[in-house]
Specification:
FAD/NAD(P)-binding domain; about 35% helix; 19 strands; globular; alpha/beta
């Protein structure tokens, strides 16, 4: 492209957003020999968006791993779980349609495709989001990508940049779309700014595909759309999403008549800490919270009323911790070394670098390495030899004297008494959940052996101060099964499409109020590939297809 043309671009397909949904869409269109203009707001080093930092978990059905573990899963089973747990209303036509599509096609469209890239999943299938007041996953289907989301992104980008049709791809980094352009009611591209030079640009295309992520990269947007029936949002909300996922193009599409739905439904996490190596202001690191713990409010009282045990109902946990400016997990070193071993995926070289033997050893035996790293890098980790010292350090970190050491000691003693007495385990809803979790082999690998907190040989004691952390938008632009953005009357907006989180992972909120977990990375792949296939096949209206 000549310099004099550098501020005006044109292609058959314009993809706005360089996250996983955007790059998969671009790759699929390139495979079909179609020209693609891909706009990525970030730098080349951070090409791939939030997926670079993603753990890599996917909810999948009918896989080789499930068969090896003798898990009798099927599309109708996952769909029943999905609709019930997400509380999808019968009138939610397009969200339900995408849920049905996911249940029916995730094996072929996601799992087989990922395996076809030469990637693998960890052998163990995990059982997450089991449900609390509402039953969630009725069996194990959470597959963890070996190497995390990073290896997936890197693999796709390599394919994209070395593709035989590479000459049909125009990839522009640091280009921010600020608005959508329409002509006679048809989407014809976007306008924006090259943030490296400050110059404006216009992009023209027959098909404009929005792949800008959700709104949760903006803490202000999270507060704006905070569920009305929840407690007020906590004073501190860490950003565990991508800061460029700020809803700017959502609003542009909505102003043009696009239907934006379910924005109050979000998938946040209860266990965040300020990122020890932040990539941006307010960046949070989401921990996979330990299970064998006391989960306490700032005054040292147990958070409730529902038992705070991860892997049951993440949304309910978030609702409960949102009542407090921060919370504490109290445990011991042995428990933390075991249950944090798989946490902090981007910090875990055993996963990222695919060191399977070392990873297996750390999972089975626990990992001092990651725990020592967190204790050394994060002030949110407090270590002490006894309860009095622990309470003192917790108070010093938070200011004041809100933690009473005598009361904390009584909580630990009560927890340990119930943990050690088999007759009491089932009477304690928190410990019975831990016990129940351990009955599934995949979870037993990552959960401590019915471990008392106060056991001296398992010390020292540990407290982790946790903050609410934003992550995913469950709502978004409403789309049909061809990825077309719909208007308020339910009619397609010619030329305009949305994929991934920008579309609420399909239909403007296919998860409903809760995710079965693992439907995000895979949901991005599914919506991207299905939308690209519709464009390639000519299944969409000719009004929305460029020359």
């Amino acid at each position: 492209m000549s310099p004099e043309e550098s501020r005006n671009y044109e292609a058959r397909n314009l993809v706005i957003g360089g996250g996983i949904a955007g790059i998969v869409t671009a790759l699929e269109l390139l495979e079909a020999g179609q020209s693609v203009l891909l706009l990525d707001r970030d730098t080349p080093e951070r090409f791939g968006g939030l997926a670079i930092w993603a753990f890599g978990g996917m909810a999948l059905v009918g896989t080789d791993e499930q068969r090896k573990w003798k898990i009798p899963d099927a599309p109708e089973i996952v769909l029943e779980d999905w609709v019930r747990f997400g509380e999808l209303a019968p009138g939610e036509h397009w969200p339900r349609a995408w849920a049905e599509c996911y249940a029916r096609e995730c094996k072929e469209v996601v799992y087989d495709w990922v395996k076809g890239l030469g990637l693998k999943f960890m052998p163990a299938v995990n059982w997450v989001e089991r449900g609390s007041s509402i039953q969630g996953n009725s069996l194990a289907r959470y597959h963890i990508l070996w190497g995390t989301g990073r290896v997936l992104v890197q693999t796709i980008i390599r394919r994209l940049l070395s593709h035989p049709n590479r000459d049909k791809l125009t990839l522009l980094h640091r280009h921010r779309a600020t608005g959508l352009d329409f002509k006679d009611g048809v989407a014809v591209g976007c306008r924006g700014v090259d943030e490296a030079s400050g110059q404006d640009f216009r992009a023209r295309a027959g098909n404009t595909i929005v792949a800008t992520g959700g709104i949760n990269g903006s803490v202000e947007k999270v507060r704006e759309h905070w569920p009305g029936h929840w407690p007020n949002a906590p004073e501190t909300i860490l950003n565990g999403a991508h800061p460029f996922a700020n809803g700017e193009i959502h609003e542009a599409a909505a102003q043009a008549g696009g239907k934006l739905t379910n924005v109050e439904n979000m998938w946040n996490y209860a266990a965040g800490i300020p990122h020890p190596q932040p990539h941006f202001e307010g960046h949070g690191l989401s921990l996979i919270p330990c299970k064998t713990v006391l989960w306490l409010d700032p005054d040292g009282r147990e958070v409730g009323p529902a038992p705070m045990v991860t892997s049951y109902d993440t949304r309910e946990m978030c609702r409960q911790v949102a009542e407090h400016p921060y919370t504490w997990q109290v445990l011991n070193w042995k428990i933390a070394a075991k249950e944090l071993a798989i946490s902090g995926a981007e910090h875990n070289p055993r996963i990222v670098n695919k060191q399977f033997v070392r990873f297996l050893a750390e999972t089975l035996l626990g990992s001092d390495r990651f725990l020592k790293q967190m204790v050394g890098e994060s002030p949110e980790f407090v270590v002490a030899d006894d309860v009095d010292e622990l309470a003192g350090k917790m108070n010093a970190l938070s200011g004041g004297n809100r933690i009473d050491s005598a009361y904390l000691k009584s909580l630990i003693e009560d927890f340990d008494r119930h943990m050690e007495d088999t007759a009491l385990q089932d009477k304690d809803p928190r410990i019975s959940r831990i016990k129940n979790m351990r009955q599934w082999r995949g979870d037993a690998l990552r959960t401590a052996n019915m471990q008392p907190i106060g056991e001296r040989k398992a010390g020292p004691l540990l407290a982790i101060r946790l903050h609410f952390i934003s992550r995913k938008s469950l709502g978004g632009l409403q789309t049909d099964l061809q990825g077309r953005v719909l208007n308020g009357e339910g009619e397609p907006m010619p030329g305009l499409y949305a994929v991934g989180e920008a579309a609420g992972f399909g239909g403007g909120g296919t998860s409903g109020k809760r995710s079965l977990e693992g439907t995000f990375l895979s949901g991005c792949i599914l919506t991207a590939r299905k939308t690209a296939a519709a464009l390639v096949s000519g299944a969409v209206s000719e009004k929305g297809v460029g020359a």
